[in-house]
Structures are given as C-alpha cells and as structure tokens.
Amino acid sequence: MEQLRSKKGFICDMDGVIYHGNRLLPGVKEFVDWLYRENKNFLFLTNSSGLSPKEYQQKLARMGLDVDQSHFYTSALATASFIKSQSPGGTAYVIGDHGLMNALYDAGITINTVDPEFVIVGETENFGYEHIVKAINFVNRGAKLVATNSDLVDPAEEGVIPSCGSLVAPIQAATGKMPYFVGKPNPLMMRTGLRLLGVHSEDTVIIGDRMDTDMIAGIESGMDTALVLSGVTCREDIEQFPFRPRLILSGVGDIPTL
C-alpha cells in the first residue's frame, strides 16, 4: 500500500469506483481530499461516453465532490480524437448520447444518416431496432464500425445496465465485422491519460473495478494496478483471469492515510 501511496499519478475509473448511479461510494470523499492534500496528479478516466467532462464535474458536485473539469477524460473524447486522426472532417452515423455527439462535433466530425464513413456506437438509453437496421446496412455498404468501449455492463444502483459492448454486439453479429474499441484497455486512451497527467507510467497507478479493462490496461501500459471490489468484480472472479492486480481493495477509502 505504501508503494501505491507514493505514486505521483492516479488514473481512476468512475462507475463502480467513485459512484454507483447517483450514489457516492464509501470513502470516496476522503480519497479525493487525500489526492488534493498530497498534491497528486489525478485523472478520472471513464469508458462511459454519455456525458461531457463538465457534466461529470457537475454530477460529482451534486454528490458533494468539488473536482475541476480538467480531471476528467472520457471514451467519447478518445473516440472523437481517433476518428479525427483517421479522417479529418469525416462523417458518421452515431448511436449514442450527447456526450459522444458533442465530442464528435467539436472534433469536426459530421453526422451523416445517408452514406457515413463510420458507424460509431456508444452508451445510450435510446437504442432500438431501427438503429440496428441502419447500422447493419451502413456497415454492409462499407462504413467502418467503431465502438467507444467493450464493456458489456455498467454498475447501477439497481444492479447493472447494458453498456456499449452489449449494444454493438447485434451489429457485429449481423455484419461479421469486428468493431474497433477505442476505450480501455486500448493503449490509445491510456497514453492520452498519461499525457494529460504529465506523469510516466512507472510513476502511475490505475484504480478500477474491472479485470478485463482497467487491470489489463494498467498491466499492458506498465502502471501499478489496484482493483476495487466496490463495482462489478468480486474476489472469486479474479481467478478466471491469467493476470492479477497487484493490490485488491474493498474500495478507494482504503487508500488515504490519516
């Protein structure tokens, strides 16, 4: 634990680590206070694409956490950056919420429902048969399939809710095309996170609740790894994977020192 506390940079997932739905998890306020008190460089890096950094800042503020907007980075921003690098001024048919739409707009990507270059899928509650049909036909006609992340479910107050990996699955199955997943554990997103922190990977720890995204991202990026059991992973699940986090914590409240 002292090795973790000595790190200069902290990359933290949000769903299942900081909150469930609109409920702050135990020990989070003490953890954030500790990050500020110890002058740590920290980033809330989330695979969720539905909200903007400003909206995440306001969400945490409603829960009693005052965190500057600069401390947030989302898979929507990562996806918009990737599409811009591949096709500046490109076009896309988008299944997702305004966080993804706004990020693409800011990156100069135009929404196209006739002959898009890309089909981009993120999280949304407004997902139906019509979206699947359009996406399948666009992909079959040559559009490239991109998804903000591969997470199948997200933790919620009532249990779990379907995430991007579940929404893109029927499009993948019907077209036979594998989507390109931009979010964790993609090194693209991790390298951007480290650049925003201004800290080298060996001086950084990633804290998350998922083995298949957070922990593998940390291991492959050369970071220290800490799995919290406050999200979708329980201790028995860890044995299913051929890799392990260095630390297993009940939650981020285990980290601060008095």
The assigned structural class equals alpha/beta
Helix % is: 25-40%
- What is the helix/strand order? HEEEHEHEHEHEEHEEEHEHEHEE
Average per-residue pLDDT, rounded, comes to 95
Rg from Cα: 18 Å
- Describe the main β-sheet briefly: 6 strands, parallel
Domain unit count: 2
Widest sheet, order of strands: 5-4-1-13-14-15
Q: How many H/I helices?
A: 9
CATH topology of the largest domain: Rossmann fold
Query: CA-to-CA gap between the ends?
Result: 14 Å
Query: CATH superfamily membership of the largest domain, which one?
Result: HAD superfamily/HAD-like
**According to CATH, what is the class of the largest domain?**
Alpha Beta
Architecture per CATH nomenclature, i.e. the level-2 architecture of the largest domain: 3-Layer(aba) Sandwich
